[in-house]
Structure formats: structure tokens, C-alpha cells
Design a protein that fits this description.
- Chain B: It comes from Thalassospira aquimaris.
- The complex is a heterodimer of chains A (499) and B (321).
- Chain A is 74% helix and 1% strand.
- Chain A is built from 20 helices and two strands.
- With 321 residues, chain B is an alpha/beta fold.
- Chain B has two domains: 169 residues, D-Maltodextrin-Binding Protein, domain 2; 103 residues, D-Maltodextrin-Binding Protein, domain 2 (3-Layer(aba) Sandwich), CATH 3.40.190.
- In chain B, 38% of the residues lie in helices and 18% in strands.
- Chain B contains eleven helices and nine strands.
- Classes of the chains: A mainly alpha (499), B alpha/beta (321).
- Chains A and B meet through helix 6, helix 14, helix 17, helix 18 and helix 19 of A and helix 1, helix 3, strand 6 and helix 7 of B.
Amino acid sequence: MNEVLTGLSGGFGVALMPLNLLLVLIGCFAGTLIGALPGIGPINGVAILLPIAYSMGLPPESALILLAGIYYGAEYGGRISSILLNVPGDAGAVMTTLDGNPMAKRGEAGRALSISAVASFVGGTIAVILMSLFGPFLAKFALTFTPADYVALMVFAFASLSSLVGKNQVKTLMGAAIGLMLATVGIDANTGVPRYTGGIPDILAGFDFLVVVIGFFGMAELIHLVEQQVSGKLKLLPIGKSFVTWKDLMQIRWTMLRSSIIGFIIGVLPGVGASVASAVTYGTEMRMAGEDRKKFGTGDPRGLAAPEAGNNAAAGGAMVPMLTLGIPGSGTTAILLGALMLFNVTPGPMMFEQRPEIAWGLIASMYIGNLALLVINLPLVGLFARMLTIPQKYLSPLIAVLAFIGVYSVVGNPFDLLLIIGFGIFGWILRKLEFSLAPIILGFVLGHLFEDNLRRALSISRGDWSILISSWESIGLYVMAVLIVILPVLVSYRNKRKA
Amino acid sequence: MKKLFAASVVMASCFFGSAHAADIKKPECIAPAKPGGGFDLTCRVAQGGIGDKLGNPMQVSFMPGGIGAVAITLFNTTRTDDPNAIVAFSSGSLLNIATGKYGEWTENDVRFLATVGADFGAVIVRADSEFKTLDDLMNKVKADESSLAIGAGGSVGSQDWMKAALLLKAVDRDPRKMIYVAYDGGGDALTGLLGGSIDVYTGDIGEMTAHLETGQLRVLAVMSPDRLPAPFADIPTTKELGYDAEWTIIRGFYMGKNVSDDAYDKWVAAFKEAYGSEEFAKIQHDKGLLPLNIAGKDLDDNVKERIQKLRAIAKEAGLIQ
């Protein structure tokens, strides 16, 4: 414990130097703006700005602090377009649309933005605290997580989503199945055989995640808006001056705490990122809400706070394996890892001994960055909310242009622009049929992870299925998955009998 | 909507479509992948290493899609004679050609130009593994090829799988009976190795620099023809240990099939000049590559021979009929 405190105080010494303080503020602000653009999330933000940071000739710890600031800033910013436009900026922000956007539609954009800012702050800060205290221990735990355990985790994630979102459970399941089917496209890693690629070389490597999100959410939403505009059904959104209240905070305090811890643990596991964390936390909160469950999806503050605390905590958690083991836990941390190597810093246990100013400076800057984000974001809530007053005829083309540029700048293949249009039309048709689109995205993300890990596990066991229940972690997760499905049924049955 | 799309297509073609000028007026290096990977790195070495030999600054552009298939298709349909552009390739691309992943396009549809360096396969285990030497490992494989789990970052039929298959073939065991676990990239595979899910990781030596001093891993052998320079000088090669399993990851460039000899020779000359310079050696080293400098006809022959070998191995391993 002493080590941690000494390290941290040294770290704050580095992070509080005027230059580094300025850089973390600039990074957070720029990150928020980058994250707010549909299609450009933390990965692209950091990837685009890495060469710039390198060429500025900053000392390594300062450059990293700048990049890390952009990383959390973009995680924060992703919620803005989710709430205001129903277009998630990145994968982790998909669940944020479910309750955030209905609030904005009620004229509570300011309240939604400020609640999510607070939830993000709590999630981010709890993650940093847990990281400083238990980082190395947790990294070792993450290593013991085998492919079979990941399968159990995915089953748990599916279970916590099973009755989620959408009034019609059959349609929710069908949506998830569509997502799963999309996830099977591309070269199969275990046999090397191209699946469902139809001879099109552009999709040999599968659909890019960004393309699926922007297509199903961004484009579908746009077509929907244009349709409403043409048919004259478009309602002007009420813009009330609303803000987070003390009552809101009291209502969501336990939600934020639970979601932060769950999000952090999921974030620590390599390969499982903010999207899984936000899905699991949302599902968990919905289950915990009991009879209030029906309010989720209609603009409930808890449904907004859970994924926001969860995805920001996961972003912090993903730093743990990178800093302590030199193994990136997510796409963004892989780029940060590349940045460390660029500055001739070797991440891993040695870094805390050899270059403490970098390791602890980075951690201290996360404390400061989270605070900075809260301070920057709360006053700007009114400004962001006013985005909705932009007339629809300007806003729709603007979103379209941003989405196209976002996808093209990241993926760089014109074929993907056709794909987002195709997915957009498909998504719009599904919307007309009253499908909820979130299960499709989640099916796509979880499907990839589920299949990859299931087949890894079965390769390791030579096809013996018992490997799936061979560890306590797995069994625990399966038990939780069963409980999460049957508990609400049991509770409501008992309540009925009492009544 | 339509207009918007048209606009972005126009933007896209401005980005890609360099004019067919007679000289290397607008040197362009195409990385057929997203930014940040090995192809990006290959282009960066060219940009820094031969940039000043071309007269004009070199631009790097990205053309992801189908593990390089999109780029090779483009250079066989519309840009077959573009004198300005070079496209990055690696042994992985050669393997894709050999196994027919690029459809109708083969090694005879492009002109191989020059290399920027190499990396080599490595056989890696945990520090506390029962395998202290490569012999320990190979004896176990000989006794039963499916007694241990080998994993790496690529799918079955990829370079990473090929390295494992070659090891099995070196002791006359059937690669098809191997327990191979396909991870999503080297980082994931390393996690699997450290966590005990797999017993052996067939990775690359370049990525091991960062892990050599941590003491968590042991490199049993490197799959290079000769011993490598420091910090890898203490690691034996598969060849000296008596196993015929070599895997060189070659990194370089190709051009369109119909590029004039004049343009091709200019590029070759620029590369050959750079090979002699200290800056080039430094950039090569800084990017984690080991020296392997071949340009022009020599490379074209070298690559075609490699692909023939790969075809033979792929056929034996049951990857192609």
C-alpha cells in the first residue's frame, strides 16, 4: 500500500506540472469533440493524433498524458450524439441511446447530458482508484481467464440481455440472431475458409464494427428523419432548460457504483471492451429494478447512468493489462501501447520500476483527466443541447456527411460506404417493423467473441465440451446467467401469489 | 442521399487516383490495410528510407479490404501501369497468392520491386514450461502430435499456422492432426500463452524485444537461416538444432504488371541506393526489422521461388487441392 501512495504522489508531481496539466485539459477537450462526432471514436481519435503528438517533440510522459486525455475525452464524448441524435459515436455508446435519446426527445437533453457526465465521471474515477489499488493483482486474474471462461461470460452477457429492450421479445431475439449472422461473415479463423463472402474480396475479413454501427444506427436514423420530414410528421423537439438534480443523483447512486465495478472488471479482461460492459451493466440494472423495469427504454435515468458508468469504467479497466503486463486489452490501448514503444518505453511490470514517472504520471493524469472532463462538460451541457435547435434540413445532411467521412477516414475502403447505405436501408425497414436495433449490434459484438472463444476452447480440449464447465469462474458465471433469467420470473410469481 | 454518396466517391477517387505521369512525380506507397499494422510499417520504412531519393515527398495511403485482395485487384484492373505507386506486401500476401485467396490473381500479375527488411518466426513458451529446449518440445510432438496446444494470432492457413505446420513437418508429423488455437492477433495469443491456455506460441521474433527482459517467456528457437544479431544472438536457430523449419517474414513492395521498365528501374535504383546508406539501416532497425535487402529481378525470382515452395507446403498440409 505504501508503494502505491509513494508512486501516486510522485505521479501527481508529474501530472500537475503546468505543461502536463495543460496537455491533459487540451486532450480531454479535443477528445470530447472527437467522440461527439458520429463514427469517430476513441480508437480513431488516438490513432489520428498519435503522429501529431510524436512530432511535437514532447517528453514521453507528456505525450502519453495528452493521448490518454484524448482517450477518456472520446469515451465521454461518445454519449453526446447518442443522446441528442440517437446515433452512437462508437460501440460503447450503443446502450446509451436506449434511455438517453428518449429523455432528449422529452425536452430533457440537458438533464440527460449532465446525468451521463456525472455517471461517466463516477465510472472513470472508480476505475482509476481500483486500478491504483489492485492493478497488478487484477492483471494476473485476467490472465487466468481461459477461452472457456470467456464463453461463460458471453452466455452471461446474452442472458442479462435476454428480455432487454423492445416491447416484443421475439423481435429482440430475432434482432440478436441477425447480429449473430452478420458476425459469421468473413474468413473463418479455425479453418481458413471464407464464409458468406459471396466472392466479394472487400468482406473477406468480415464486416468492420464501425460500418455495422453507423449503418444500422446512423444511416437508419437519418432515413427515418428524412421520411418524417417528407411526410410532414416531424415534430420539433422541445428544448427545456433542464439539468441534473439532487434527486436524480440519489436515485442513481447505487446504479453508478454497481455499474462502475462491473464495468471495470469486464474492462480488465483482454478483448472484452466497453460495449460488453455497457450491455451487461444495463441488463443488470434492469433486472435489479424489479417492477420499475418497464420504465427502462423510455428515458429512465438509471438506464442512462448504468451504461455510461460501465463503459467509462471499462475504458479505465482496459489500461490495467496494458500497463502491468504489456498486453493491450482493447483496440485503443493497443495504439497506446504502440505509442509507448515509439518512445522506447517497454510496458509491463518493469515499467513501474524503470520508468515510474511514466507509469504513475499516466495514472495520476487519469484522476485529473476525469475531474477535468466533469468540469469541462457540465458548463457545456447547454451548448451541446442547443445542437437540437439546428433545423432538421441542415442537421440531417450534416450527420450524413460526418458519418461518411468518419467511416471513410477510418476504414478507407469506398466499398464500406455502400455497405453503410445498405445496412441503413435494412435497419430502416427493421425499424418500420418495430424491431429494436440495439440487439443487432450486441449480437454482432458478442457473437464474434462467443464464437471465437468457443472454438478456441474446443480446439484446446480436442472437442471435449466438458471444458466449458471445468473452472469455478465458468460455473459461477453460468449460475449467475441462470439466476438472472429466472429470478424476475420467480419474484413476480411470488408477488402474484401474495396478492 | 445519392448526391452525397456521389460526392464521397469523387472525394475517394481524388484520394486514390494519382495521375499517370511519366516520372515519379507523386510517389505513393499503398498499405493494403488499416493504419497501424505491418503494411503501414513497411510503407513508413520506404517513406523515411528512400523518400529523399525520389525527388518528391512520398505519400502513404491505405487501402484495406480482404487481407490485401482489394489492392491487388485494383492494380490488375485500373492501375496496372501506374508508375507512381508501390504496394506493400509481406509473406502473408505471398501465402494468400499461393493458396488462391486472391482469386484469379497470381504472382505473375504483379512486378515485385524491393524489400525493406525481414522478421523471423519464433517458437515461444512460458518461462516455467516443461520444455527447456526445442528438442524437448519436438520429442513430445514426435510422440503424439496432438498432445499439446499450439496457438498464434492468425487463422488456419495463415503465416502463423504455417510456422507451426512446418515444425510438425520437420519431424514428419501431420499438421492436420495438430491442435491449433487461432487467436485474434499476437497480443491475444500471448495472453493465452501466459494464462496457460496454450503450450506453445509460434510468433515473430521482432515482437519479442519487449518481452525478452521480463523473464515471463522463453524463446526456444528462431526460424531464421542464420543466427540473428543482438539482442537475439543467444537464441539458437531451428536449422542449427537440426529441424528444417525456416520462416522468414519478408516485407517489401510490388507494382502493377504493365509498369514500364523505365519507371520500374527508377524505383529499383532508388532502393539500391538506399540500401547502402546508414539512415536506411537505422530506420530498418528502429522499426524492428532485420536486414534483408533485395531489389529488382533478384527479388522477383526470389519471390516466385518462395511462392512455389509455399504452394507445395500448402498442398501437403491440405490447404489446397
